[in-house]
Design goal:
The protein has two domains: 1-95; 132-236, Leucine-rich Repeat Variant. The protein starts with a helix and ends in a 5-residue tail after the last helix. The protein is an all-alpha fold. The protein has 15 helices and no strands. The chain has helices at residues 3-15, 20-27, 41-55, 60-72, 76-87, 90-95, 98-105, 111-127, 133-140, 145-153, 156-159, 169-178, 185-198, 203-212, 219-231.
């Protein structure tokens, strides 16, 4: 398979769905050095579904090379499509290792890209033992806030049924403890998400965490997590 030709096709198909209003609306929502094509999620996923069917018989190495080639085209939606195509390929996911993950994650610079990477790839690889606690801790120690966010959001698949998680209080709290006091807003929001997700399987542990770190936690985290604990929802 000519991965460069397929990568070009994916980007061309995404460009065909460019919506100027979407493009303008999202440029400030997730600012990035990557090109924002302005493609709605439903249109992106229609392309992903088609590509998954076409690529089902390809081997893991080919899917990895293709994902890198799509990412190299440097578009927001292309990167997301690459992650979702990879996520949907069983043998590629089973072969995923730290070196590949970090290559796929190179250049993440906005919350949308980070979250697609962490929920679809790294969190699942971590849950399945393909990367270690030490690897996630190293990301948490990064000077790059986007890799710190990736480390925190990687806890989400540990605790969400739709991603195969059944609850992992120990590792979730371990990572959350490491970012208490972090000064970046995107890490604060990731911490809120991680704790809110854990409330579904271990609300007691989340309450204890809030109590222990009350004086150090941003108001946003305390507000959103407390609301989830009391209402079952992030908002309302």
């Amino acid at each position: 398979m000519d991965v460069d030709s397929i990568a070009d096709e994916v980007i061309a198909r995404l460009r065909a769905f460019t919506n100027r209003e979407r493009q303008v609306a999202t440029q400030n929502y997730f600012p990035s050095t990557q090109e924002n094509l302005g493609v709605y999620a439903a249109d992106l996923r229609s392309i992903v579904r088609d590509m998954r069917k076409r690529l089902k018989a390809e081997d893991a190495k080919t899917i990895y090379r293709l994902a890198l080639a799509i990412i190299k085209r440097n578009t927001l939606e292309g990167r997301q499509a690459a992650y979702e195509i990879f996520d949907g390929h069983k043998s590629a996911m089973e072969a995923l290792n730290l070196k590949q993950l970090e290559a796929l994650g190179k250049g993440i610079d906005n919350w949308a890209s980070v979250d697609s990477f962490a929920v679809g790839l790294s969190g699942i690889a971590w849950r399945k033992g393909q990367i270690s606690d030490a690897d996630i801790k190293r990301w948490i120690g990064s000077k790059d806030p986007w890799w710190r966010r990736a480390g925190v959001v990687s806890t989400v698949p540990l605790n969400i049924k739709s991603r195969g998680g059944s609850g992992d209080t120990k590792r979730t709290i371990m990572i959350c403890e490491m970012v208490v006091g972090d000064d970046h807003l995107m890490v604060h929001k990731a911490l809120s998400w991680a704790l809110r997700q854990l409330t579904d399987t271990d609300p007691k542990a989340v309450r204890e965490f809030l109590k222990k770190h009350d004086s150090q936690l941003p108001a946003l985290v305390k507000r959103e997590v407390t609301r989830k604990l009391t209402t079952g929802k992030k908002n309302g």
